[in-house]
Amino acid sequence: MFIVGLFVAAVVSSASFFLIIFLTTPQGGSFVIALFFFTFFLSLTSTAALLGMLFDYLVGWRKRPVLVDGLQDRSARTSNSFRRGILLGGFGTLLLLLQSWGMLTLGVAIIAFIPFALLETYIIGNSL
Predict the structure, then answer these.
(1) Whole-model pTM?
(2) Eight-class DSSP state of 18
(3) Which residues contact 88 (CB under 8 A, 6 or more apart)?
C-alpha cells in the first residue's frame, strides 16, 4: 500500500515540477524560483524513495519477514527508503542550487556531500 501512495506522490510532484518549468519563467520573481526548487525537491525525494522501495521489494522478496522491536522488517525497510529519499532529494536540490549560483565545483560537491554521509552514518549507527 505504501508503494501505491508513494507512486501517486511521485506522479503529482513530478507533474507540478514540469508545470512550474513549462508555465513560468525565471523572471517571474523569487517566488517562482522558490517553487521550482521546492517542487524539484519533492519530485526527487518521492521518486528516489519509490525506486528504493521497489528495489527493496524486488531484491528482498526472498527474505522472510523478521520482527525488529515488535515491528515487521518491512516497516523498517520502508522507513529506510523514505529517509534515503529525503537525503538524496536534499543533496540533489543543494547541488542544483549551487549550480544555479555558479558555485558548484567538485570540491564544493564533496564538501556538500560530507554532512549527508555523516548524517546517514549516524542514523545507521544508532539504529543497530
Answers:
(1) 0.84
(2) H
(3) 44, 45, 48
Instruction: Give one DSSP letter per residue of 23-68, joined into a string.
Output: H--GGG-HHHHHHHHHHHHHHHHHHHHHHHHHHHHHHGGGSPP-EE
- Positive or negative, the CA dihedral 9, 13, 19, 24 is positive
CA within 13 Å, CB half, 86: 7
- Cell 519509490 belongs to 50
Number of neighbours of residue 81 by Cβ within 10 angstroms: 22
Identify the bridge partners of residue 71 per DSSP, sorted by sequence position. Answer: 68
Confidence class of residue 55 from pLDDT cuts 50, 70 and 90?
A: confident
User: Could you give the CA distance from residue 4 to residue 58 in angstroms, rounded to a whole number?
Assistant: 15
Surface-to-core class of residue 21, CB atoms within 10 Å of its CB (0-12 exposed, 13-18 middle, 19+ buried): exposed
Phi first, then psi: give them for residue 71, nearest 5 degrees: -110, 155
